[in-house]
Amino acid sequence: LNRKNHYKTGDRPFMILVGILSGTKKKKRFSGDEQFFQMIQFELEQRGGLSFVFTPKMIDEDFIEGYVFKNERWEKKIFPYPHVIYNRLPSRNAELSKPIQTFFNTLQSYHIPYFNKRFITKWEQIKMLNDSSFFPDSERLTDSEKAYRFLKKHAFIYIKPVSGKVGKGISTLTYDDENNILLKTQTNTKTINRDDVQQLFSLLLKQSHTEHLLQQGIHLRKWNEWKYDFRILLIKPHDTWKIIGIGVRATSEHNITTHTLRGGTILPLETIQSNVNINELTIFALEIVKKLTEATPFLKECSLDIGQDEDGHFWLFEVNTKPMTFDEKEIQKRRVQTLSDTFYFLKETKTLGEYP
Question: What's the pTM?
Fold first, then answer.
């Protein structure tokens, strides 16, 4: 090891050292939003701290290699184990791998706090909240006949991969009669019959690597013929959840989801503010995270996808325990500031072990 690359607490007295655990990615140093990681580092530096980004392959028993942004580029250095770990691993498989589970156990033995500990699948979220007033009617795809009855019951349903992200792999079915069932995917729309639907369900059931969820479709409120829903970012910097910002995502009736990566667009909250009771929306969001925290006390940050139907009722579609970057710059700025508050709180309230 090149000892010149060491960052030592004696050379520079950090008030806090934060490690950002990211994933590996081909042709890149690490996965994730580099600008977001730079913003965290800049914010911490203003407060006398420092952060670095590292991947599972950079972890050693006695130190962690990591990247710090200096002189307009990422430089690799060697760090002691930090005060806090911010988990930004991009997949469940990465989190469940044996090296990472061993690493998490090591952090616990050193009393080093880390969040958020893991992804929560769509079905896990429904079971954890266990309240039909939050989610639309939902069930796992386990049997094609049962699934067909679910379609007939609701006439409009979503089919979602249980571990899917950003709207990937979602499709919808709209039932008119047994010979007129509309199937929509991200790229295609066609009319099919009962036999086709049964075949679709059977094919999905054969995908052993992917479970699917069936969910009652909600007819969203519209603005100028565009259906829209909300992305609400929440962080728990101390003992109470805070709403950091509310984003609005809209799309045409032809698109399945409002995700910007799937054809959705951003609307300023002010555009639809006269259409929605923001106070009721925030109360609904805080009720969700309060109940979710009872089942997942490790949770410190999440975003909620919430829609409002034509009758004004709010529905939770998904909890994201690894929120992506918010396109609204003010929300993202408040996010970084509040995350930094969270890091300091965790450092001060946890008993930290000695650095190895």
Answer: 0.92
